[in-house]
Amino acid sequence: MRMAQDDLATPQTPPDGIATVVQERGLRGSMRTLMTLGLRRVRQGELGPLPVILGLIVIALYFGSQTSWIFLNARNMSNLVLQIAAIGSVATGIVLVLLLGEIDLSVGSIAGLTSAVLGVLVVYHNWPWWLAIIATLAVGAAIGAFQGAWFGLFGVPAFVVTLAGFLAWQGVQLRVLGPNGTVNVFEPHIDNIAATYLPTIWGWALGVGVAVTYTAANLIKQIRRRRAGLSSQPLAVLLVWTTIIAAISLGAVGYLNSYTGVPTAGVVMLGLVLFFVWVTTSTKFGRYVYAVGGNIEAARRAGINVTAIRIWVFTLSGMLAAVGGLIFTSRLTAASTQTGGGTFLLEAIAAAVIGGTSLFGGRGSVWAALLGALVIGSVSNGLDLMSQPPEIKYMVEGGILLVAVTVDAISRRGRAAAGR
Amino acid sequence: MLELRGISKHFGAVQALTEVDFEVYPGEVVALVGDNGAGKSTLVKCVAGTHAPDDGKIVFEGREVKIASPSDATHLGIETVYQDLALCDNLDVVQNMFLGRERVQRLIPLAVEPLSEIEMEKQALDVLKSLRVTTIDSVRTKVVSLSGGQRQSVAISKAVMWNSKVVLLDEPTAALGVAQTEQVLALIAQLREQGLGVVVISHNLAEVLDVADRIVVLRLGRRAATFERGEATPDDVVAAITGARMLKIGGNR
Q: Where are the domains of chain B?
């Protein structure tokens, strides 16, 4: 009903008036435009990262208040970053897979297996650290490519292929580790990933770099849009966003620097997240991932090689799982039969979903990996600080996952109710 | 511009098309009507490259062509908009219009090639403007939040923005309300203005009589009748579709 009225009303706009949201002038006007657009998005079920950010604030305040604010102190935050580095990296790959509308259940086992490969290569075969790392990442990528090809070429559901992988790679992991079960990896370069921190000055450089790059990129984009005669963000909005981003990046760096600095593993994770944010939003490949997840038939008719996209995405997922395995090895200074097992797989998937990636494909952002990992990591860390037993942890994480998926499902219904 | 001569096609024992002639000229809207199973969709699919005809010739711009795949059709400048539109709901208007043919900046060729969003957005705006599609507020709106008429407009604009010469529209107004149908008919008229050949498959006679320069009636896989604009009454067309009377068998142009 609503749509029909809209359509009757719109032909009155002048022929030239297409495609520019009517923008009101001045600061108040631009704020009002922003509010209108924001409200429209919320009503249409395009919530973006809003729920998870609100959730994070609630979680931080709750655990802060329950632990006489130990949870929020710089030392614990530094720990938190270290704790989520592996999960955040692996969840980045999961986000890519979810954007396709698929699932990868093998990432935990791949992380475990690649950790074993790394340990064995360095300790038993005396490979140089850098070559071993390259080989480890290649193994992860190859496993991902194999699974992606099996799914893409034979049409076996990814769920089944990666479930098979979940079991099989665990077996390979045990075989690689051999009868001893655990390989202690005392290789300084590898151990340093999770044991070192950026020097204060480099930490600041990173924070300033992120803020400046964001501002410059956005400013250039808006100037070019204005020059091309396209609608551009009002300056006030640009200013607000720049301030927020600068406050977050500089605030985080300053806070971590007040303890021992930004953890190296955290930088690795952040670098991966930023890189894949760029890939998904600014390259053809990223666009095709969204297209395949949104409407596979449309993607195919547009000439997109759907099989190739699928294989690539699973390859990346495998490689990012290997990064997780690398960070694990570094943190534990060992590769063991337990690495990558337990709840790790489900936590990585939960992180991607809690961060706001839709399970139904085509919706979400790589930022979800970071935000979701923060939620999962905070809950786990906070409950540990409160000396809660693991059973409570599982129940709470399960509850949060359920809430996150419910938000996704309800916002889907919101979109449907808005007439589409 | 596009001419089909003696096209036949059968599926197993079913003869879907029997020696059908069909033609569309630049700046002309031809309506293809007929009952269910009359062979309209099969004919369109033969031109679009989804089906290969068993027999007959396809002549495009004066020379005989083979259309073996949808990409052959696209290369010739023949675009088809199917009923399901094939748009990605989760992408915006510009992203859909350029899907599969994105513009990139070659910062480092083959390695770093970010999308040229500004260029694409500008071009999309130009196309929509030239087609007088005025109902879309912002080309950065996701398709999920567009109405049926707006989606159809996007799908058609997408089809014609690549130097196409002939556009085939499969039931473009079937799922639309009155106001939205008006939009789409106006858009079809605009395509004619721009000199494209437009083929419209439709069930709606009033609409066909309103927009088409010529009406071709298929019945049981054969061309049953042809009406020039203004020369047919709805009753005549219905009669030809149902076979109550045979009028002017074959083409007359």
A: 2-91+164-242
C-alpha distances in angstroms, A162 versus A104, A114, A158, A271, A350?
6, 16, 6, 27, 17
CA distance linking residue A15 with residue A22, whole number of Å: 14
B residues 3-22 near A, CB within 8 Å?
A: none
**Is B106 an interface residue toward A (CB < 8 Å)?**
no
Q: Bridge partners of B20?
A: B7
Closest CA to A166 of A315, A322, A340: A340
B86 touches chain A (CB under 8 A): yes
Instruction: Using the predicted structure, report yes or no on whether residue A210 has a pLDDT greater than 90.
Output: yes
ipTM: 0.86
Spell out which residues of chain A touch residue B119, defining contact as CB-CB under 8 Å. 228
B109 in contact with chain A, both atoms CB, cutoff 8 A = no
Q: What is the mean pLDDT of residues A339-346?
A: 90
Asked if B147 has any chain A CB less than 8 Å from its own CB, the reply is yes
Helix (H) or strand (E) holding A62: helix A50-66
Domain boundaries of chain A, sorted by first residue: 51-196+263-413, 197-262
Instruction: Determine, for residues A20 and B145 on separate chains, whether the beta-carbon distance falls below 8 Å.
Output: no
On chain A, the residues whose CB falls within 8 A of the CB of B118 are: 221, 224-225, 228, 230
- The model's pTM is 0.88
Alpha helices in A258-295 (DSSP H): 264-282, 284-294
Q: In chain A, which residue's Cα lies nearest the Cα of B138?
A: A19
Residue with tokens 């921190």: A197
Contacts B135 to A, Cβ<8 Å? 7, 10-11, 13
B134/A3 CB distance under 8 A:
no
Q: Does domain A51-196+263-413 have CATH number 1.10.3470?
A: yes
Count Cβ atoms below 10 Å from residue A76 Cβ, excluding itself: 22
A396: Cβ–Cβ under 8 A, 6 or more apart, which residues? A379, A383
Residues facing residue B228 across a β-bridge: B214
- Domain at B2-91+164-242: CATH code: 3.40.50.300
Q: What integer pLDDT is reported at residue B245 of this predicted model?
A: 55
> Is the pLDDT at A18 greater than 60, yes or no?
no
Where does the pLDDT of residue B253 fall: very low under 50, low under 70, confident under 90, or very high at 90 and above?
A: very low
State chain A's mean pLDDT as an integer: 89
- A297 CB neighbours in chain B (<8 A) are 84, 86
Q: State which residue of chain B sits closest to A414, comparing Cα positions.
A: B145
**Residue B189: closest CA among B173, B203, B210, B159:** B210
How far does the CA of residue A22 sit from the closest CA of chain B (Å)? 8
d(CA A6, CA A4): 5
